[in-house]
């Protein structure tokens, strides 16, 4: 664990277990989470790994947080895993410590993110290399600056895109595109990242924050319980047969209706059918009733 930011007490007065390598600002329901090693282009060291796990724990139970945005401080999103602190030093140390670090890294970069109970958006502001692709693809949605630079640079220094990078890339890019960038290590910008399916869209850097906030605000309006079930269902059915997916989705739908604290389906139907108060094709039902 790393030093904490003493100016960031928790509600019970204790220091937060982040603040040195990761900063968090909660504003209007959105947690803006920044990897914070700008002088090292936010390369992912053990400090970022352990602080990000602590941040995900805390944001999960913070009722003031509805959406998480992950970005980087300064002019980088992240230059990938830290070659010295994540690879060279742990490689020379006890195997158990290295395994523990790798497990913790997998947790925050994708294992927890995939089914994280709140929506996550990657806001790619600049350099995005190697292991940073896991973070990017681990988030539900992603927006890039047109000017951002992406690269699967592993081939340039003699390793394969490991961790879970190759698997992540295979999930969102075509085989031709994935192999092209894995094998050449060629860089590309935010607009190309959109064409490749790596991000939802790209915008000029000057608009990145506002556009990300707009997307986060849209997600904030949705029923959070159903949002969570919908994204989890997506990830589960991807690897199922059609018959299994049908069974699973019907059961998941029943479970979601039954357990939804705000009984969204009843509200939605009442407001559309009885009250003629909204149109689901145009907006969400009124959740404040
Ligand atoms: N690991 C460790 N240190 C890094 C990393 C990294 N991935 N990326 C940048 N740094 C450090 C540099 O060593 C340098 O440290 P120093 O000031 O102590 O010398 C500092 O960050 C600034 O980096 P520069 O290279 O000087 O910054 P510049 O803006 O010129 O270039 C760039 C940025 C292109 C991102 C360059 O730093 C780079 O190529 N980094 C490596 C990118 C990469 O290949 N990442 C994949 C890692 S492998 C993986 O993730 C599985």
Give a quick precis of the structure.
This protein is 47% helix and 15% strand. It is built from eleven helices and ten strands.
Account of the 3D structure:
The protein is an alpha/beta fold and 289 residues long. It has 2 domains: 2-220, 2-enoyl-CoA Hydratase, Chain A, domain 1 (Alpha-Beta Complex), CATH 3.90.226.10; 224-274. Helices cover 47% and strands 15% of the residues. The chain has helices at residues 46-61, 83-92, 95-114, 132-138, 165-172, 175-184, 190-195, 205-220, 224-237, 242-259, 264-274; strands at residues 22-27, 30-35, 67-72, 76-78, 120-124, 127-129, 141-145, 149-151, 188-189, 201-203. Helix 1 (46-61) runs parallel beside helix 3 (95-114) and helix 9 (224-237) runs antiparallel to helix 10 (242-259). The N and C termini lie far apart (44 Å). Residues 1-7 have low confidence and may be disordered. Bound molecules: acetyl coenzyme *A. Residues 40-41, 43, 79-84, 127, 129-131, 153-154 line the site of acetyl coenzyme *A.
What keyword list fits this structure?
single chain; 289 residues; alpha/beta; 2-enoyl-CoA Hydratase, Chain A, domain 1; 2 domains; 11 helices; 10 strands; 15% strand; disordered N terminus; binds acetyl coenzyme *A
Structural class: alpha/beta
Count of strand segments: 10
CATH topology of the largest domain, anyone? Answer: 2-enoyl-CoA Hydratase, Chain A, domain 1
Strand content: 5-15%
Tally of alpha and pi helices? 11
How many discrete domains? 2
Major beta sheet summary: 6 strands, mixed
Distance between the termini: 44 Å
Chemical compounds bound to the protein: acetyl coenzyme *A
Query: How would you sum up the global shape?
Result: globular
Characterize the quaternary organization of these chains.
single chain
- CATH class of the largest domain equals Alpha Beta
């Amino acid at each position: 664990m790393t030093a904490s930011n003493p100016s960031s007490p928790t509600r019970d007065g204790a220091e937060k277990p982040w603040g040195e390598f990761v900063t968090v600002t909660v504003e209007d329901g959105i947690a803006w989470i920044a990897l914070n090693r700008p002088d090292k282009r936010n390369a992912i060291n053990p400090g970022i790994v352990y602080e990000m796990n602590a941040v995900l724990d805390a944001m999960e139970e913070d009722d003031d947080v509805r959406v998480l945005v992950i970005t980087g401080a300064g002019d980088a999103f992240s230059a990938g895993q830290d070659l010295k602190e994540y690879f060279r030093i742990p490689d020379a140390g006890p195997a158990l410590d290295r395994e523990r670090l790798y497990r913790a890294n997998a947790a925050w970069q994708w294992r927890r993110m995939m089914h994280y109970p709140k929506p996550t958006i990657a806001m790619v502001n600049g350099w995005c290399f190697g292991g940073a692709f896991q973070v990017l693809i681990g988030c539900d949605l992603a927006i890039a600056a047109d000017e951002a630079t992406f690269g699967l640079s592993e081939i340039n220094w003699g390793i394969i895109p490991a961790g879970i990078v190759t698997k992540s890339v295979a999930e969102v890019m075509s085989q031709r595109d994935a192999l092209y960038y894995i094998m050449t290590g060629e860089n590309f910008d935010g607009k190309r990242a959109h064409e490749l399916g790596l991000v939802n869209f790209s915008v000029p850097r000057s608009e990145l924050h506002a556009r990300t906030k707009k997307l986060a605000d849209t997600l904030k309006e949705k029923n959070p319980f159903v949002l969570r079930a919908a994204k989890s269902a997506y990830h589960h059915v991807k690897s199922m047969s059609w018959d299994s997916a049908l069974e699973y989705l019907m059961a998941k739908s029943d479970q979601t209706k039954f357990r939804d604290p705000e009984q969204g389906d009843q509200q939605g139907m009442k407001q559309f059918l009885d009250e003629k108060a909204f149109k689901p094709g145009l907006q969400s039902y009124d959740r404040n009733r």
